[in-house]
Structures are given as structure tokens and as C-alpha cells.
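Can you please make up a protein's amino acid sequence together with its fold in C-alpha cell form to help me picture the idea?
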Amino acid sequence: MMSFFPLSFCLSPLLPVLIFQNMLAEKVEQMMEWSSRRSVIRMNGDKFRRFVKAPPRNYSVMVMFTALQPQRQCSVCRQANEEYQVLANSWRYSSAFSNKLFFTVVDYDEGADVFQQLNMNSAPTFMHFPAKGKPKRADTFDLQRIGFASEQLAKWIADRTDVQIRVFRPPNYSGTIALALLVSLVGGLLYLRRNNLEFIYNKTGWAMAALCVVFAMTSGQMWNHIRGPPYAHKNPQNGQVMSLNGFLYIAQRIP
């Protein structure tokens, strides 16, 4: 009986360490399980506070704060979500995938309390929560200046976490199909007019076509096509149409 007390006295300092390690192992195991089901883990308020904010944590977490429900009418949220999914899939199915980085999303309709806690009044927003310490200013992605392309997000993540992600995009055959249809249309037209091809040498027609191309290339519509901005932006909290400083919308670029 006498030997029990010295033994318990020696083990007592180790008890908090064992509890800490056990809690950390459970959190990592749970995050890995969720990540195995889907590349982007959906978080509500409780999950966010437990797995992202609360210690212990030895992994970094990327969080996209968004508003994807149709009634929110946030088109830029849907576009940003597509790029975010591409990036998360590239990480999840790469050979470098590990439990050091996880991709998560908090939707306003599932975690309004998180938006209020972080004083967020717009979406989408990308934040990095480091494994140690609190997020700094650089841990919030500069969406207005850089945009939300997967490649730009990957560069930012590499800067914040030293994790290199090679972006793999699913093949897009729409351009090839459109080109094939155009070639078929032109070929069919030339075949039908094969006995009368004088219109090819019509200088006025070519001049008008060239002017149309020039006007299209210098118009706001071409900028919209390249950058793909939303028509407008709605605040996810009150639905009010608003504009963000430094962010251009289709409504502002239509000539």
C-alpha cells in the first residue's frame, strides 16, 4: 500500500500529457475519416469550434466561409466553391496527402454563429487556421486582389503552410466540341456555296467582321468572359445587394 502513493505521485504529471495526446489523436482520426468521405469537410458551429478553433491541434485547416443556398443568390460563392473543390480534390488524391492539412467549408445557413463570432459580413472568404497560434492577417486570402482560381489558392497555401499542391483539373471538352461545330458549319457553308465563292473576296464583309471582333475584344463583355465575375453580390446575412471595394461585377462592366 505504501508503494502505491509514490507511484501515483510519479504518474500524476504525465496524466495531462496522456489526456492531451489522446484528445489530439481522436481529433486527427475524426478529421481523416471525414476527409476520406469527401475532400471538403462541411462544418457547423460546433464542429468548427471543436476541430478548428479549440486545442489541441497539430494540423492546419483551410476554411471557406460561403453562402451556397439558392435563396442567397451568391453566384460568386458557387464559382469559388468549384475552384475550392478542384484544389481540395487535387490535395486529397495526391501522393503527398497527409493529416497535416485539411480543407473545410462553413456555410452561412449551417454556421451563422461562426460568421458572427468572426465578424464576417461577406462571402466567400478563405482563411487559414495554423496548427499553432492564432490566424494572422496574412492567413486571410486576398480575394479581391488575387481572385479565387485554384492555382492562386495553391500558391497562398504553400506560402502559409509549406504544403505544395499541384492542381489537377478535370478535362473540359467544351472548347473542342465548339471548335468542331464551327469547322463543320463553315465547311458545310462552303460546300453549299461551292459554285459561288465570290463572297470570300468581299472586302466590305471582311472589314465589318474585323470591326466586330475589335469592338468585342475591347468591350466590358470580354473582360466579363475572361474574369467570370458575378453580376452582383448579396450580403449572406441580410440579402442586401452590395459591392466590395476593389471587386468589379458584371453590372459595372456592361458597356
